[in-house]
Amino acid sequence: MRVLGSRLQSTNFEDPDHVKTLITRKLGSSKSPKYGTKNSDILKFEQLYSKLNQKRKNRTTSKSDLTSILYILYKISNIESDSNSSSELLQTLLQNVDYKEENQEQDMEIDAPHFKPHNENKSGQFQFLKSFRYRSQDISEEALCKDLLYVFQGIDGQNISFSILEDSFVLAPNVNVSESTRKLVTEMCELGWLYKKVNDFMNRNIDSTYCDQVTQSLCFAFQAELTEFYRLIAILENQHQNYDETDPANCLNLRKLYLHIQEPMERMKWLAIIVDSIQGLKGGTIISSIHSYVLHGSPVTKMLLSKLLREVSAPILTMIKTWMIEGELNDPFQEFFVSMDPNVPNDLIWTQKYDLKPSMIPSFLTNDFARKILLTGKAVNFIKKCCHEEDWVLDANEHIPFNADTFSSDENSYSTLQNWVDHAYKVTNKELIELMFDKYQFLTHCRALRKYLLLGQGDFIQNLMDSMVNELSKPAGQLYKYNLLGILESAVRSSNANMTDSEFLKRLDVRLLEASPGDNGWDIFSLDYKIDAPINTILTPEIIQGYLKIFSLLWKLKRVEHSLNKTWVQQTSYKNELYSLKEIRSDLHRCNLLRNEMLHYINNLHSYLQVEVIESEWKKFQEDLDHAEDLYDIMRVQRKFIEVIHKRAMLTHEHIELYQLMIKIFEQIHQFSRTQDILYSSALEEYHKRQSMMDDGDEYSQVISPDASNTLKQLGKYYRANFDKFNEALSILEIDEKYLSFRLDFNEFYKDSRERESISQIHHDHGFDQLDVDHIEDDDDEEDEEEEDEDDEEHINTDVYRMPHGKRGSKGFRPQ
């Protein structure tokens, strides 16, 4: 067992003749007469040594092997546990060796059938010697070099094989070499392990039908590297085959082999690192993984990785070139950073059919750079499929040649690629923008929307409003679209809108919204503008809906303005008749004041929306269009135009309270107009009755109910309260809305009124008489009259103009 646990090595006995002398002395001192005389044992040993020496001369056994064999025999004879038995074992070995000629080419073996142990001790020694041949084996450096050359190619050698358990090539445990030699061999075996990893990766992917193009390019790049590696192995094998001990300078030994493989091992390490880093990746992610190592400090390593990067980038760069020039996307393995949805129709090419895959963008391309590539290919497809310009071809190479096969990681290649992409991007999108503005007249469509949906064509809108009043006053169920279309055409013909190109006028249409119970025509009517391809890519249904939302507010505002103007025209037309009735002059005066306040609010709000909001944003919109570089920029400018108008016109969700206050004020103005219509109608009826009664000599006539004054007071009170809320809400918003608040109360009239009401309320709460605060109130007669009548009625009654009978005397009308 000591022999099994020890390392038998002739480190102190390098000369076989010296070991031979030691063994001869040992045999001479043996005292066992059973196996022959001392001289006979020495003679047999001499014969054995002569035969072993002959094998060495024939190169069957090396000098070191001969020394090792003799040293083992000598060590066996020196086992201290049983020196007599050891000597007898050595004698038994010599006695049982068969020296026949036919066994000269075989390794030295122990003839077990001829061994007849005399006791168990000798039997155990023989079994140990028999197993020792399989546990310990000397090997020459030449044989190790030969095995290593096989290992470098991933092939098991005679003494070095691949261990699945250890996942590495290992030297057989029964090989008897020094620790330093074993360590050196183990280090060189790493090259075989690296080669095996790279070669296995190539075998799995290079001929696979499911392998993506980038991975296949990487495999071919690996194959080129391995070809150089095979050339080195061939050179080393040639040196090994021409091995000559007499010429040590040209012979291949372990240390020379170690030096030869340093550079190939370093390159193979990087190939293996790349194999590990791209597991589960494909396309652009593989390129990004390799690119992350390119900035390595070693020039040799950087050159290797740059070469690999050039090879794996070639498929993606070819896809980029094909996509940007022809608009075609040939990507069967989904490895390009531009994706396509084949189920999306061509009408949605720009918005939905193509998109970016950020994870697939190679790391040497920025997101903005990838976006330019995407937009250029989109533009090519849009020009050919949506604008029907199939013959248009982009020839970017005419100005900036670019070859995907010569791309590398240096700055010049990046600069060339960037210049080529920028040129293709500018040329393609310039062509597309010219088509949209010239062939499809996008800006003219925008002007038509500005005129009709944003009420920019004033005479047309006024004619339309005048013509629609009667029709839209009907219940929603009694409205018919063909009647409204006839009115719309009449309004166009009777205004300057008739001068517009018929191509755009025919797109103007009427839209009836879904009606709710109690709705009339005003609630469901809207103008519409029809858009078709390819303009609908920019003027999408969402954009048109944004225009209609603005139209709805402007149309409500225009209707309120129209109703107030109508009441003013009505009062002006019948001024003499109405003011002849002295008892309603105060009511008429109150109507004038309230109408003027309402007109002040409506006119300033209308001016703010049309001038400060729409007109100013329209100017910015045109300026931004001049700087648009692609279709996305045009879409962004168009969307921004609508969103800013919505925000400044208080149509967004954050302005919902202001919008509700506006609508409430509009409703109160409509109620005021209806109330004034009833007042004027009743007054005119009374006027005509009085005229007829004067002609007939009748002394009796109707009187106008005093409830009219109370109704107007209540309307004024509620309108003022909502107006104050609206103005206060404006004052805390952004600068544009604050400017509207300033315009509505430029002389602080409403602010002073609120302060007077506040002071009046404080004195009222403390029990002061009304006369005690007269010195701080305005002396305006109208205000005094409102203070006196403030508590007469608490509710609005629109039907308050009753005409009780009265009598007319010679001095005028006296109420009963």
Automatic annotation (TrEMBL):
Residues 761-774 have a biased composition (Basic and acidic residues). Pfam families: GCP_C_terminal (PF04130), GCP_N_terminal (PF17681). GO terms for cellular component: gamma-tubulin complex; microtubule; spindle pole. This is Spindle pole body component. Signal peptide: none annotated. Belongs to the TUBGCP family. PANTHER family: GAMMA TUBULIN COMPLEX PROTEIN, GAMMA-TUBULIN COMPLEX COMPONENT 3.
